[in-house]
């Protein structure tokens, strides 16, 4: 073979070899592509979060608890591990694709991923009537702050997902752990309230055992609501059960109007002192008061004898206050009540407001009997626990009316505020002299009067306050006087020397403010005092 022929032959061999390699490469690429196309992904939605609702110290009021979830890739090994842990594989669970299973304990096995998901509402949910709840789909706020600030809280929506790789048959590749996909999960932005989480917990626990009622803690200087309790409370994780409860757990009793009884005597006393009645005014209680033929009995039918304002508060003498009210005038009393905040609903957001309460009309006050009723807190007078807390705050802070505030501000990071809501400037409604006189009588009442069971047990700390047993005119058994619904109240403040907090306790049909409501006040005051001492120590 000639040199030329050899060269041609070699060239043909090279060309042929290159073609074979190219065909092989193309076939392998197609095979790899085909294999890739037989695999797909499955994304498991694990958890969703939204903006946080905080207290005034930026402590979360929601999302403070977790629930354990097992993300299970179906396999004999995973099922065995679950069975050994006492967990039941739910009927209808996929045999090919991963699913979520709530578990009590950690489960360790190949194909099982353990996740601590956020439980938005806990077993001891703080301030449920304020916080509110979500719709059944968990996509929108349906009540409370959740609804009022729904748009803002949605800005911080987040999600947690797991991405699994599937083979051609749709089974997960158990050797491959899932890819964790976090999108703004557990964002810390949200809205902060004036509530103090520690105070709220103290007040809620103090109210345990009360079937129906409310408790409010208010900063006497600012009107900021530090705690607001309504019982019974609903379970935000099981709203359907609460719908069947005859005690109406969805009603926020702290924002609802009630007969207030003798707590209103503070307003009557303030109006009397401001209109010029002497603090040493005396009256002889004979056990009843006759007002134009209408007989109003004292709780002490034998009469209290000749007493002054201080003693009248101490023993809660109705005839004394009827005398004081008639001397002061019904219109002056109503005017003072309005300036303090009675009949004015507190509007916290577009969707959250209290009831307004009621006062007798000018036409009603033409009757001395109506003025007499008003003078010891009866008749067509109603108010909310929030309004009674305003009354106590005004008494304790030197005579300045305060406007209740519930929303503190907003945060992007859960550490600092980017905006605070406007604070309301207190307005003077009566003199410091009047405030001092009332405070003296209220402290005396807790020391030696009907409020002794409210006295804090923390050494060196006193309190001032007033009991009430408010008749409602509602009888559980028609015609049976003993069956009348009588609400128990205690309205007070502490510390006695330097008032800081007003605390109002209402127990529906609790009968006796002295025996039922006053001890709850003491529990709340003690708890807050100890908490503040601990904070100072830190």
Radius of gyration equals 34 Å
Low-confidence spans: pLDDT under 50, at least 5 residues?
A: 10-15, 23-38
CATH architecture of the largest domain: 3-Layer(aba) Sandwich
Count of folded domains = 2
Main β-sheet, spatial strand arrangement: 12-11-23-22-21
CATH superfamily of the largest domain: DD-peptidase/beta-lactamase superfamily
Largest sheet at a glance? Answer: 5 strands, antiparallel
> What is the tally of beta strands?
23
Strand portion = 15-25%
Q: Which fold does the CATH topology of the largest domain refer to?
A: Beta-lactamase
Range of helix content = 25-40%
Give the CATH level 1 class of the largest domain: Alpha Beta
Q: Note the total helix count.
A: 15
Distance between the termini: 103 Å
Question: Mean pLDDT across all residues, rounded?
Answer: 92
What general form does the structure show?
A: elongated
Structural class, from secondary structure content?
alpha+beta
GO molecular function, one term: beta-lactamase activity
Pfam families: Transpeptidase
InterPro entries: Beta-lactam/transpept, Beta-lactam/transpept-like, HTH_AraC, PBP_dimer_sf, PCN-bd_Tpept
Catalytic activity: a beta-lactam + H2O = a substituted beta-amino acid
């Amino acid at each position: 073979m000639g040199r030329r022929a050899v060269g041609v032959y070699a060239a043909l061999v090279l060309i042929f070899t290159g073609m074979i390699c190219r065909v092989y490469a193309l076939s392998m690429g197609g095979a790899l592509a085909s294999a890739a196309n037989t695999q797909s992904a499955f994304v498991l939605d694990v958890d969703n979060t939204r903006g946080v609702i905080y207290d005034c110290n930026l402590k979360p009021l929601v999302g403070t608890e977790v629930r354990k979830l097992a993300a299970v890739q179906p396999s004999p090994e995973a099922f065995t591990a679950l069975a050994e842990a006492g967990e039941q594989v739910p009927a209808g669970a996929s045999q090919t694709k991963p699913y979520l299973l709530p578990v009590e304990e950690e489960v360790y096995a190949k194909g099982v991923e353990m996740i601590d998901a956020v439980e938005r509402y806990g077993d001891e949910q703080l301030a449920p009537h304020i916080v509110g709840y979500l719709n059944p789909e968990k996509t929108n706020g349906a009540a409370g702050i959740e609804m009022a600030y729904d748009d803002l809280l949605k800005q911080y929506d987040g999600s947690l997902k797991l991405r699994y790789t599937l083979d051609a048959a749709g089974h997960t590749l158990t050797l491959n752990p899932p890819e964790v996909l976090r999108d703004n999960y557990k964002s810390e932005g949200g809205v902060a309230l004036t509530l103090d989480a520690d105070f709220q917990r103290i007040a809620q626990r103090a109210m345990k055992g009360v079937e129906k009622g409310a408790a409010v803690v208010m900063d006497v200087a600012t009107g900021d609501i530090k705690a607001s309790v309504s019982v019974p409370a609903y379970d935000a994780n099981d709203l359907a059960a609460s719908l069947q409860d005859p005690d109406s757990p969805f009603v926020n009793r702290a924002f609802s109007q009630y007969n207030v009884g003798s707590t209103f005597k503070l307003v009557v006393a303030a109006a009397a002192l401001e209109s010029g009645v002497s603090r040493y005014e005396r009256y002889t209680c004979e056990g009843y008061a006759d007002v134009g033929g209408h007989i109003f009995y004292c709780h002490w039918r034998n009469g209290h004898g000749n007493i002054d304002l201080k003693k009248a508060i101490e023993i809660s003498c109705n005839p004394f206050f009827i005398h004081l009210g008639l001397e002061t005038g019904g219109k002056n009393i109503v005017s003072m009540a309005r300036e303090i905040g009675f009949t004015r609903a507190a509007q916290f957001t577009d969707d959250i407001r209290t009831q307004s309460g009621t006062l007798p009309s000018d036409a009603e006050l033409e009757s001395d009997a109506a003025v007499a009723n008003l003078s010891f807190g009866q008749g067509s007078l109603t108010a909310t626990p929030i309004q009674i807390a305003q009354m106590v705050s005004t008494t304790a802070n030197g005579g300045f009316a305060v406007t209740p505030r519930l929303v503190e501000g907003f945060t992007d990071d859960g550490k600092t505020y980017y905006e605070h809501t406007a604070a309301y400037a207190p307005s003077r409604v009566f003199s410091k002299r009047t405030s001092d006189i009332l405070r003296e009588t209220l402290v005396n009442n807790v020391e030696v009067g009907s409020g002794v069971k409210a006295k804090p047990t923390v050494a060196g700390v006193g309190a001032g306050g007033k009991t009430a047993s408010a008749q409602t005119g509602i009888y559980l058994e028609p015609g049976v006087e003993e069956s009348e619904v009588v609400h128990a109240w205690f309205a007070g403040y502490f510390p006695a020397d330097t008032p800081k907090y007003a605390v109002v306790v209402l127990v529906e049909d609790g009968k006796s403010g002295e025996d039922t409501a006053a001890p709850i006040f003491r529990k709340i005051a003690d708890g807050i005092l100890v908490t503040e001492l601990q904070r100072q120590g830190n």
